[in-house]
Specification:
Number of domains: 2
CATH superfamily of the largest domain: RNA methyltransferase domain (HRMD) like
Strand order of the largest sheet: 2-6-5-4-1-3
Number of strands: 13
Strand content: 25-35%
CATH topology of the largest domain: Transcription Regulator spoIIAA
Structural class: alpha+beta
CATH class of the largest domain: Alpha Beta
Largest sheet: 6 strands, mixed
Order of helices and strands: EHEEEEEHEEEHHEHEEE
Distance between the termini: 52 Å
Shape: elongated
Low-confidence stretches: none
Mean pLDDT: 95
């Protein structure tokens, strides 16, 4: 199998972990590197016996050397790949959440195939957190796909995307920390940071600029019943 990506071989223990579905390879688990790369690039992960295990984002600055992105040798990591991932994640969330789709966590990081990415929906506002360099470098593709898919497939016009990238783990990825509105994609950047949502028949005013994390613990929705 001939591939264009730099190859990283890993220990047998790490191989068992990856084969079992774990999405990370730690620095001490890499035994050999064949080729060159820049942090944030996509690399191939191979076993100690040169069996292909997957491809993922590499970063020497992080203890997590590789974050697995795909286990399909046919995947090409262009914009269309991330559009498909976004559409799949949103369709799944719509099926699972039903009427609660208007206020829920749309993307759960590695569980949805997006290393280090959280996307919460508060009606027509999306709040994001990015904790992976490779995802950060490709976030414009993801944001565009979110805005366009919500419009074309769910008839929802997203007013704004707000980033809450304050977690210190970003520094370990070689990323800056901060927060703010996303420019472009027809989005507004002049909002006051408040949005009203309904959850479990109760109305809340969510402050997605000053509130904890992304503004509201949407993953705890059913614990508040």
């Amino acid at each position: 199998m001939s591939r264009e990506y730099t190859r990283l071989n890993i220990t047998p223990k790490a191989e068992r972990s990856v084969r079992a579905g774990h999405p990370w390879v730690y620095g001490e688990e890499v035994t050999a590197v064949s080729g060159e790369y820049r942090n944030g690039d996509i690399v191939d992960v191979y076993s100690s016996k040169d069996k292909w295990l997957g491809a993922g984002f590499v970063n020497d600055r992080s203890k997590i050397r590789v974050r697995i992105l795909s286990r399909n040798t046919n995947d090409r990591f262009d914009e269309a790949f991330f559009v498909r991932r976004v559409k799949y994640a949103l369709a799944y969330r719509k099926d699972v959440m039903g009427d609660d789709f208007s206020c829920c966590r749309l993307i759960f990081g590695e569980a949805d195939g997006f290393p280090g990415l959280t996307v919460d929906r508060f009606e027509d506002i999306l709040v994001t957190e990015v904790l992976c360099l490779g995802t950060e470098q490709r976030k414009d593709w993801i944001y565009r796909a979110l805005v366009e898919t919500m419009q074309t497939e769910y008839a929802v016009t997203i007013r704004s995307i707000y980033e809450r990238n304050e977690a210190g783990i970003r520094l370990k990825e070689g990323l800056e920390t901060g927060k703010g509105f996303v420019n472009g994609f027809g989005l507004r950047t002049d909002l006051d940071g408040h949005v009203e949502i309904t959850e479990n028949s109760i109305r809340y005013d969510v402050d997605y600029i000053k509130g904890q994390k992304t503004g509201f613990f949407l993953d705890q929705k059913y614990n508040r019943l």
